[in-house]
């Protein structure tokens, strides 16, 4: 059984690579709750009011997903509980949560992480982080077109996204729950270019081989983007 978690800032390409990778490895994809998330649009309209509720919503869904992924067969997760704290503390640092909310959140997360330690499989086998520049991030956010994520919806999102990229640098350096690797999301267009897709999948399978976690009975094959079901 092999569990892979994807990480990276908004628009980096996590959901897209989750779909490609899970199809390639013949494993199950787990997606974040976005289009069916009732709190997300409220958060972008009024972050001060909805930061805490949104975080509890994500934390709850991520906890259930990682528990299921760690007890199921092979899986690929599009963002996981390991990034939850980055988002909450980033928002708290810009004044969107008070000290009591931070303390309560940290204690709750700690209890959840302790519960994961009791799972038969305690951690993922590999973290695949997609690194992108601010320019790439913005162009992908525009390409995807969720209205509330656009700079035209809220110009202060420029600072928010730039801060997110800085927090991710430290987050990736500190992450130590599993082996990890970084994909250059500026360089590889794994959506439109077949050779880029092949190269990225190759990098990931090499790393899985290196850590002894390539799923059993798996054979490399080509995958066409048309055959993949992307999440919306
Ligand atoms: N490597 C890439 N090259 C070009 N376009 C990409 C790449 N990765 C993702 N995209 C496009 O960028 C947008 C955001 O990708 P998505 O997978 O939803 O990002 P995330 O899940 O990290 O927020 C989508 O329109 C997707 O088609
Ligand atoms: N405040 C938070 N926002 C979050 C969190 N996780 C995701 N998000 C937002 C960011 C995007 O607008 C959207 C989906 O993220 P993608 O990176 O998949 O595009 O949800 C969080 O924990 N806190």
What does this structure look like?
The protein is an alpha/beta fold. Helices cover 51% and strands 10% of the residues. The chain has eight helices and five strands. It has a five-stranded parallel beta sheet with strand order 2-3-1-4-5, with helices on both faces. The mean pLDDT is 94. Residues 8, 10-16, 78, 140, 143-144, 185, 188-191 line the site of adenosine-5'-diphosphate. It holds the Pfam family dNK. Belongs to the DCK/DGK family. It comes from Lactobacillus nasalidis. InterPro entries: DCK/DGK (IPR002624), Deoxyribonucleoside_kinase (IPR050566), DNK_dom (IPR031314), P-loop_NTPase (IPR027417).
Give the topology:
Layout lengths: L2 E5 L6 H12 L2 E3 L9 H6 L1 H25 L3 E4 L5 H10 L5 H19 L8 E6 L2 H11 L12 H18 L5 E5 L9 H17 L22
Parallel strand pairs: 1-3, 1-4, 2-3, 4-5
Helix pairs in contact: 3-4, 3-5
Pfam families: dNK
GO molecular function: kinase activity
InterPro entries: DCK/DGK, Deoxyribonucleoside_kinase, DNK_dom, P-loop_NTPase
Order of helices and strands: EHEHHEHHEHHEH
Q: What is the C-alpha radius of gyration, as a whole number of Å?
A: 17 Å
In total, how many beta strands? 5
Largest sheet: 5 strands, parallel
Q: How helical, in percent, are the residues?
A: 40-55%
Present as ligands are: adenosine-5'-diphosphate, the ligand Nc1nc2c(ncn2[C@H]2C[C@H](O)[C@@H](COP(=O)(O)O)O2)c(=O)[nH]1
Uncertain segments are: none
Give the structural class.
Answer: alpha/beta
- Termini gap: 27 Å
Overall residue-averaged pLDDT value: 94
Family: Belongs to the DCK/DGK family.
Protein name: Deoxyguanosine kinase
Domain Deoxynucleoside kinase: 4-206
GO molecular function: kinase activity
């Amino acid at each position: 059984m092999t569990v892979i978690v994807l990480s990276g800032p908004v628009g980096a390409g996590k959901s897209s690579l989750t779909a490609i990778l899970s199809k390639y490895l013949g494993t199950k994809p787990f997606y974040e709750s976005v289009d069916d998330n009732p709190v997300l649009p409220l958060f972008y309209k009024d972050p001060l009011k909805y930061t805490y509720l949104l975080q509890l919503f994500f934390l709850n869904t991520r906890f259930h997903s990682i528990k299921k992924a760690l007890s199921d067969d092979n899986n690929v997760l599009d963002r996981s509980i390991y990034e939850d704290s980055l988002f909450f503390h980033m928002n708290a640092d810009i004044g969107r949560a008070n000290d009591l909310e931070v303390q309560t959140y940290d204690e709750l997360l700690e209890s959840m992480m302790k519960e994961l330690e009791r799972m038969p499989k305690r951690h993922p086998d590999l973290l695949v982080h997609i690194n992108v520049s601010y320019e790439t991030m913005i162009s992908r956010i525009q390409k995807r077109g969720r209205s509330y994520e656009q700079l035209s919806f809220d110009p202060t999102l420029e600072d928010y996204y730039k801060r997110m990229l800085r927090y991710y640098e430290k987050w990736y350096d500190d992450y130590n729950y599993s082996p990890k690797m970084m994909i250059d999301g500026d360089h590889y267009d794994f959506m439109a270019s077949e050779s880029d897709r092949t190269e990225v999948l190759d990098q990931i399978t090499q790393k899985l081989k290196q850590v002894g976690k390539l799923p059993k009975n798996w054979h490399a094959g080509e995958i066409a983007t048309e055959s993949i079901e992307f999440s919306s």
